[in-house]
Every structure is written in structure tokens, then in C-alpha cells.
């Protein structure tokens, strides 16, 4: 009898805080340092921690922050800094805190410290200052960083600013304007929002791209994003700032995708013949967003899942099944006399939010196969992601899928007319084309489900790809 563990993790737009996560920050850092993490569709990020870069932290110290939480945030920054090779020719660090004023006495610039020990000690001297925290003048802190940090940055080295805040700034238009000025100096801005009071739209206005926005629901949950944040920062650092030479010698990145003719042969072969799974332990997690897929798409996904879990070859008593879904919008409509002004109407519609696919993949990676959710340490981990419609943030989705694969999760993609480029689908899937199942209509979903079962049962855990 199939043992089904329904892990309904719900809307994951804000990362969940796993309070009993036994992994320390240092352990997560070692995982990042020791693994070969590939940028989606690009080369391996080799020794990203030694890429020259100037990285500045702009840290919220306003009164809304609980003192112990501020300390946790600073320890997170210290642990993050340990990823990198620190030195005058390598990565340099600057930091400043702010509230109703910019707290300059504990701030330090890129040239203040020459090695990792000195940087960590300087970060340790930054203390929580509630007396300066009556307001949140993020704009002033960004201005300070632009004038005092990045005006002294190295000319041909990548520049990164990381803004850590727990709420909305007191002057969002000015904050955006100052962030735009900083970005105009070729500074890549990453925005991290902590808690339920953050203004996500403002974080997107501050950040250089949607992939540079991180949301966590508590300071304790910062440890859960350290791999993703390290990846984004390393990617920024690996993109060298443009030089001012006028000689057009840029065609060094010649595409090398021509010798990939072997993949075309796999599309003409019939699906592998189903074989008994020989009692192997398999943990499945099916990932989909009903709000994105609509009623018919959700029904197709459920039909697919039912076909898989009912397959005779998987009905061996050693298969567990979970689902990770985003909720449908549950906000009801309203009558003509409900609201009397435009702001109230707009606020109502703001609640109609859908879940981004990348956040569901994050939940798959962080929670889907954890022991407290029924995951087994020696079981084969299989994630099946349903896509219908174009991804809003493909780079973030690709990043999360790659991080999931580094944790041993085998990723399959069910493409339901998703309108995404083939390269995007291949970067999400573990085995590229062999792990992409296409269904152009409802009638093909059952056949694709059977193909998945055949593939799973033919490829034993640890075996070669089909």
C-alpha cells in the first residue's frame, strides 16, 4: 500500500523559518565552498570566493528591530564574509548601519581592513543602537555608501551593495532615487527583507534585478538563504566590470553549443520500458501552483499524480509522496458599497498574490525531504515540477533548481505548454531533455505519467541516466 505524506507547504513567497534546523551557518558555508555550483546554462563558478570584488553591507538598525535579532543578523554577515578570500587584491568589505541617522562611528570602508580577521573584528564592533532608531532613513545610508565607500572602490572590480532591512523606509521615493544613483555607478544591489513589515515592492525598487531580492520571515531564517545569497554575490563578482579601453576585443565568449547533436537522438527513442522498481525507497514531491495553472491545469496535474502513485511498479510499500503547492487566491470579491476610495480598492487587490515558482522550489529544497516531513535519508529523492505559463523569474528558478540538485534531488519537469525557452527547461531538469516531459493537452498527461514511472523504475538509485 502506498504511504502518502502530504506536505502542503503552502505559499512560500517568504522563506519558512526552520527553527530546529541542526545545520550551523559555518556548515552551510562549507557546503557552498566545497560544492561545484554551476550557474544555470553557464560555466562553473570556479573559486568564487576569491574573485576580486568590493562588497558593502548597509544594515538597518532602526527601533523596530529586536536587539537579539540584530545580533543574529550581524553573525549572519560575519559567517557570510567567511566565504570569501579577503585582502587588498581579493575581496574587500565595507559596512554601515542606519536608523534615523547614519551611524558613522562604527562604519568602516574598503581600505580599513587588510585581511579576514580584521574584517570580522570590525563587524564584531558594530553594536545595536536603539537610540538612533526612531526612523528608517534607508536613502541616507545608501547615499553614505555611495559617497564614502564606492567612490573609493577599485575601477575594474565588481561592486556589490547588500541592503539588510526589516521594514519600509520613511521615504520610499527618495530611497529608490538613491538606489538608482548607486546602480548608475555599476554597483549591483542585493536587497534582503526580514519579517512581515517589509515592503516587497520597495525591495524590488532598490535591487538591481528581481533575482537580487531575498525575503525571510525572521532573522533566524537568514541562515536558510546563505547558499542562494552566496551564489548571487559570486555571480555578480564573476562578471568583471567593463574597462574603458576603446579596442573592441570582446568576442572572446564564442558559443560552444554546436556539438550537442547527441541530445537529438534521445527524442526519437521510445520511452523506456517499465520494469519493477525492485522495492527501492523513493520519496516523491510534486510541485505546482494552482493559481498559476488554473482549474483545468490543476486537474491535469492531479490526474498525472494519481496515475504515478497508482502505478503497479511503484506500489511496493516503499514509496512516499508529498505535494508542495501555492494556494489559490482566497480573497473574495466585494460589493459596490464596500470601498469609498481608490487606496482601499488597490489594497484589496494587493492581496491577490500568486506564488512564484522559484519559492516553491526553495521549499522543495529546504523542507520537502527533511526527516520531520517524512523524508528518509537513504531514499531516492525525486522532485516533479509542473509548469504552465512563462516563468516570471527564470534566473531565480534556475538557481533554486541547481541548489536542489546539489542536495541530491532529481528534478523532472512536466511542461504543459509553459512558453519557456528550451534552455530554461533544460537548466531546471536534472537530465536535461531526458527529464523533461511534454504534454500539449490533457489527454497526454496520463501517457507522460506512465513515461515518468518507466524512467524512474529503469534508473535505479545511483544508476546511470536513461
How much helical structure, as a percent, in the residues? 25-40%
Number of strands: 12
Order of helices and strands: EHEHEEHHEHEHEHHEHEHHEHEHEH
The biggest sheet amounts to: 6 strands, parallel
Identify the strand order in the major beta sheet: 1-9-8-10-11-12
Report the top-level CATH class of the largest domain.
Alpha Beta
Can you tell me the overall shape?
Answer: globular
Please work out how many helical segments DSSP would assign.
14
The assigned structural class equals alpha/beta
Q: Looking at CATH, which topology of the largest domain would you report?
A: Rossmann fold
| Whole-number count of domains | 2
**CATH superfamily placement of the largest domain:** von Willebrand factor, type A domain
Please mark out the parts with pLDDT under 50 across 5 or more consecutive residues, or reply none: 1-23, 32-47, 240-275, 460-466
Ends apart, CA distance between termini: 27 Å
> Which strand-content bin applies to the residues?
15-25%
Q: Please tell me the CATH architecture of the largest domain by its name.
A: 3-Layer(aba) Sandwich
Q: Specify Rg, calculated over alpha carbons.
A: 24 Å
Average pLDDT number: 77
Structure description:
- The protein is an alpha/beta fold and 466 residues long.
- The protein folds into two domains: 38-238, 3-Layer(aba) Sandwich (Rossmann fold); 266-330 and 355-458, von Willebrand factor, type A domain (Rossmann fold), CATH 3.40.50.410.
- It contains 14 helices and twelve strands.
- The chain has helices spanning 25-34, 67-81, 116-124, 138-149, 172-184, 200-206, 226-238, 262-266, 290-309, 342-350, 357-368, 394-406, 422-428, 443-458, and strands spanning 3-4, 53-60, 91-98, 102-108, 158-165, 187-194, 213-216, 282-288, 319-325, 380-387, 409-415, 436-438.
- The strands form two sheets. The protein has a six-stranded parallel β-sheet, with helices on both faces.
- Helix 2 links the parallel strand 2 (53-60) and strand 3 (91-98).
- Helix 2 (67-81) runs antiparallel to helix 3 (116-124), helix 4 (138-149) packs parallel to helix 5 and helix 11 (357-368) runs parallel beside helix 12.
- The protein is globular, with a radius of gyration of 24 Å.
- It comes from Acanthosepion pharaonis.
- Residues 242-268 have a biased composition (Low complexity).
- Residues 54-229, 283-456 form the VWFA domain.
Amino acid at each position: 500500500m502506498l504511504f502518502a505524506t502530504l506536505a502542503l507547504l503552502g505559499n512560500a513567497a517568504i522563506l519558512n523559518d526552520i527553527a530546529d534546523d541542526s545545520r550551523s551557518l559555518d556548515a552551510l558555508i562549507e557546503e557552498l565552498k566545497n560544492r561545484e555550483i554551476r550557474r544555470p546554462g553557464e560555466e562553473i563558478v570556479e573559486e568564487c570566493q576569491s574573485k576580486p570584488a568590493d562588497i558593502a553591507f548597509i544594515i538597518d538598525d532602526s527601533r523596530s528591530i529586536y536587539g537579539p535579532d540584530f545580533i543574529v543578523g550581524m553573525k549572519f554577515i560575519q559567517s557570510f564574509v567567511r566565504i570569501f578570500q579577503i585582502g587588498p587584491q581579493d575581496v574587500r568589505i565595507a559596512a554601515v548601519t542606519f536608523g534615523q541617522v547614519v551611524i558613522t562611528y562604527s562604519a568602516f570602508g574598503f581600505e580599513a581592513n587588510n585581511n579576514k580577521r580584521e574584517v570580522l573584528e570590525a563587524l564584531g564592533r558594530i553594536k545595536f543602537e536603539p537610540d538612533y532608531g526612531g526612523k528608517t532613513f534607508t536613502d541616507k545610508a545608501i547615499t553614505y555608501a555611495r559617497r564614502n565607500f564606492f567612490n573609493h572602490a577599485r575601477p575594474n572590480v565588481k561592486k556589490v551593495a547588500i541592503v539588510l532591512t526589516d521594514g519600509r523606509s520613511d521615504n520610499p521615493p527618495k530611497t529608490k532615487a538613491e538606489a538608482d544613483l548607486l546602480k548608475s555607478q555599476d554597483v549591483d544591489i542585493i536587497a534582503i527583507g526580514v519579517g512581515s513589515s517589509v515592503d516587497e515592492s520597495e525591495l524590488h525598487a532598490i535591487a538591481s534585478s528581481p533575482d537580487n531580492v531575498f525575503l525571510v520571515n525572521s532573522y533566524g531564517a537568514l541562515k536558510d538563504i546563505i547558499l542562494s545569497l552566496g551564489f548571487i554575490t559570486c555571480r555578480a563578482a564573476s562578471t568583471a566590470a567593463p574597462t574603458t579601453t576603446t579596442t573592441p576585443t570582446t568576442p572572446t565568449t564564442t558559443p560552444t553549443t554546436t556539438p550537442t547533436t547527441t541530445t537529438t537522438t534521445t527524442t526519437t527513442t521510445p520511452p523506456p520500458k517499465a520494469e519493477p522498481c525492485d522495492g527501492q525507497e523513493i520519496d516523491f514531491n510534486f510541485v505546482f501552483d494552482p493559481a498559476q495553472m488554473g482549474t483545468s491545469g490543476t486537474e491535469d496535474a492531479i490526474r498525472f499524480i494519481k496515475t504515478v502513485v497508482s502505478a503497479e511498479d511503484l506500489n511496493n510499500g516503499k514509496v512516499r509522496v508529498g505535494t508542495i503547492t501555492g494556494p489559490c487566491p482566497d480573497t473574495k470579491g466585494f460589493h459596490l458599497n464596500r470601498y469609498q476610495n481608490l487606496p482601499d480598492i488597490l489594497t484589496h487587490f494587493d492581496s491577490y498574490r500568486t506564488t512564484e515558482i522559484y519559492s516553491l522550489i526553495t521549499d522543495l529544497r529546504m523542507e520537502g525531504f527533511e526527516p520531520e516531513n517524512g523524508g528518509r535519508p537513504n531514499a531516492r529523492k525525486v522532485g516533479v515540477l509542473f509548469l504552465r505559463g512563462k516563468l516570471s523569474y527564470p534566473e531565480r528558478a534556475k538557481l533554486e533548481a541547481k541548489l536542489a540538485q546539489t542536495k541530491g534531488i532529481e528534478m523532472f519537469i512536466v511542461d504543459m505548454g509553459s512558453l519557456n525557452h528550451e534552455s530554461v527547461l533544460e537548466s531546471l531538469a536534472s537530465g536535461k531533455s531526458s527529464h523533461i516531459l511534454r504534454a500539449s493537452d490533457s489527454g497526454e498527461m496520463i501517457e507522460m505519467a506512465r513515461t515518468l514511472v518507466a524512467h524512474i523504475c529503469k534508473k535505479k538509485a545511483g544508476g546511470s541516466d536513461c
